[in-house]
Amino acid sequence: MNRPSEHRPAILIVRPPSQASADAATLEAQGWRAVPFSPMQIEPDHEALRHLNRQFHNADAVFWVSPSAVETAAPHIDFSDGLPIQITVGQGSRKALAKFYPHNIICPEEGNDSEAVLALPVWNTLKPGAEILIVRGHGGRDFLRNALIQRGFQVRLAEAYFRRPYPPDWSVWETVEPQAAYITSAEMVDLLFRQVPDRFAQPLRTLLYFTHHPRIAEALRKAGARHIRMIGRTDECVTRSDE
């Protein structure tokens, strides 16, 4: 795994830039040449962020949908009293939140989606009609929100950021010739394939894609991707020469 960087197979990290550095280190350790390749930028909603601390402290529990939600919103919150209950969608979001909140953070041991969060026992410990705040971007998935409303909770949204399409540097196909991609959301799939120039559309479809969720794999298949590998962790992205 100590090949010079220029001789390593290249893998695209298709996720927001602020989250790519840790993945890059893991992938480099696995023998890849890691290339950040985000088709979107996270743009804070400053008006929403001005009201966020009040919303936060009115809630009985707060659910964070992603590391992007934490990175954008957490700096605007006073966590000093250790309240309310904090819940994240997965370990990546939990680690991001732990930088701001040093107390217990609840997240699924297995699974990293809203369905796994809904199965957590914490919802059975909250008082009837408790207020739940969901911190997310504009236009997020409503599965958990609707399910919690059906259980009688009051659910509020703090839509703290916008996802803006951003053209990645497609010239990487001419400089590093990527063989694979690691992608972390179905929305990233849509943005990636929607923006691809015609001359790179076929190479994009033939990459080996690593992802962690069946919903993302299905989005890749619909976009025309031919080679998809389900993984549990980033360090399970093995190079083709290791297979």
Short description:
The chain is of the alpha/beta class and 243 residues long.
The total of beta strands comes to 11
Biggest sheet character: 6 strands, mixed
Query: Main sheet: which strands, in order across?
Result: 3-8-7-4-5-6
Q: Work out the radius of gyration.
A: 19 Å
Can you tell me the overall shape? elongated
Instruction: Please count the helical segments.
Output: 10
The helix fraction, in percent, is: 25-40%
Strand-residue fraction? Answer: 15-25%
Q: Low-confidence segments, ≥5 residues, pLDDT <50?
A: none
What structural class should be given to the helix and strand makeup? alpha/beta
Mean pLDDT: 90
Cα distance spanning the termini? 13 Å
SSE string: EHEEHEHEHEHEHEHEHHEHE
Enzyme class: lyase
Pfam families: HEM4
Keywords: Lyase
Protein name: Uroporphyrinogen-III synthase
Overall description:
The chain is α/β, with parallel strands linked by helices. 35% of the residues lie in helices and 23% in strands. It has 10 helices and 11 strands. Strands 3-8-7-4-5-6 form a 6-stranded mixed β-sheet. A 5-stranded parallel β-sheet has the order 2-1-9-10-11, sandwiched between helices. Helix 6 (143-150) links the parallel strand 7 (131-137) and strand 8. Helix 3 (67-73) runs parallel beside helix 4 (91-98) and helix 8 (186-195) packs parallel to helix 10. The two termini are 13 Å apart. The relative contact order is 0.17. It comes from Neisseria zoodegmatis. Its EC number is 4.2.1.75. Residues 24-228 form the Tetrapyrrole biosynthesis uroporphyrinogen III synthase domain. This is Uroporphyrinogen-III synthase. Keywords: Lyase.
